[in-house]
Amino acid sequence: MDIRKLVPAALVAVMLLAPAVAVAQGTKTLGVEVKIGIVDLQQAISTVKDGKKAKKKLKAFKKKKEKALEAKADKIKAMEAELEKQLPLMTEKAKQEKLKEYQKEMLEAQNLYVQIQQELAKKQQELFEPILHKLGALLEELALEYGYTLIMDKSGGAVLYFSPQTDLTPELIKRFNAEK
Fold it and tell me: Which of 13, 31, 74, 127 is buried most, with the most CB atoms less than 10 Å from its CB?
């Protein structure tokens, strides 16, 4: 590794991070006190009652869809076994027809897999979007109530360090479960 390339990159990183460190410490920027809170949305979603219900529904939906895919896979395995036995005994025309039929089944299985993945993504969005919307509204309430100017989601991977006192996740979960 060339040290000449590393030093300018380190200087740029320090210049970019210095204002962020000052802001995170609660300093005033342009006359406004900056207060940053942290939340783990993935933990919140998987911990709140509605999130647990949605996760169960998604799991059941996925299981049902996987059964259809397993049935298709079983059919393909049966075709493979049949082809192994009969292929040496078949005429060239019969071989081509059976192979064409096998390829058709394989393509259908691939298409079914893609379709199931799309359906799962749609169902996941359908189940979790209302929860995320409600969590967002509660986070806004928390921010206004406690004077936070910024709340970051640590489950996104962008937060490298935070003080546990700035973690709003337990309060967010408590408020979500208390509402109905």
Answer: 127
